């Protein structure tokens, strides 16, 4: 069976917000937003299809920005995607969603719409803008009514870590279909997530117990354990076990960078991962994606270079978040700042 390949495609930087932890405007909130032209979007789309033909993959698009719905040719792009019967998810804002817009999105083939909640009302609105918290919760029902799945994503840092358990309760009550969280990747001058490894492990423990309680009560929200440190947590608890006969040279899980994912920006720049600030590997307007994949992307597939993970038995399954490590010190292969596992210095796998 063919596997999907995920293209995180930023078609525009245009956005109604200037979030304090946004990587797009982290250096300059006054920058003029970039956006692809319609011709550039068409060329990019067919470049992605060419990639999938070469590597026998099925394309899956995560359309985002900025807020992708603000692009003047947004609906034309959706029509092109629908013409080729390709599934996609929207990562956007809640402000322009109405029943009619959501219904139209579903008719074009949108499977999921992802929104963000980064704290309870006061914290979230401080991160994003006043009124955003209530608007986001309100639009969950709008998304679901149209037949799409409503996804809530939280970016966790030292600022909001104590609020995550309450966020979970809030999004469950609002009927979200999927909930996940990932860590803040340091950008600009701020190079610390504000969380110690022990604090982050405690968060996972608290959330795990909440997830278990909700599932036992018949909760329909799916809790997506997105952060790869969940693998370490479940390994320590005996929930995850290394499969017998697992190949020593096979990567089974962990970070998808260099494996089944790439990011395309409005400028055409191709990134191994959007959350890795220095991971540009080419430009979709100039380079064939299929060539970039076997050349420049190799830089992110040298698993022996992981300074800590290469000595850990979970190398093939975890590797934490290299984007967080890169954001802190510029080194993709450095140790994950929130990984609490002690690894013997002389150990090899």
Can you give me a brief rundown of this structure?
With about 350 residues, this protein is an alpha/beta fold.
SSE diagram, text form:
Layout: E1 4-10, H1 38-55, E2 58-64, H2 74-83, E3 88-91, H3 99-107, E4 110-116, H4 121-127, H5 132-145, E5 149-156, H6 164-173, E6 178-183, H7 197-216, E7 222-223, H8 229-236, E8 261-264, E9 269-271, E10 280-283, H9 289-294, H10 322-329
Parallel strand pairs: 1-2, 1-8, 2-3, 3-4, 4-5, 5-6, 6-7
Antiparallel strand pairs: 8-9, 9-10
Please describe the structure with a list of short key phrases separated by commas or semicolons:
4 iron, 4 sulfur cluster binding, single chain, Radical_SAM_PqqE_MftC-like, 4Fe-4S, 10 helices, 349 residues, 10-stranded mixed beta sheet, alpha/beta, iron-sulfur, globular
Characterization of this structure:
- The protein has helices at 38-55, 74-83, 99-107, 121-127, 132-145, 164-173, 197-216, 229-236, 289-294, 322-329; strands at 4-10, 58-64, 88-91, 110-116, 149-156, 178-183, 222-223, 261-264, 269-271, 280-283.
- The protein has 349 residues and is of the alpha/beta class.
- The protein has a ten-stranded mixed beta sheet.
- α1 runs parallel beside α2.
- It starts with a strand and ends in a 20-residue tail after the last helix.
- The mean pLDDT is 92.
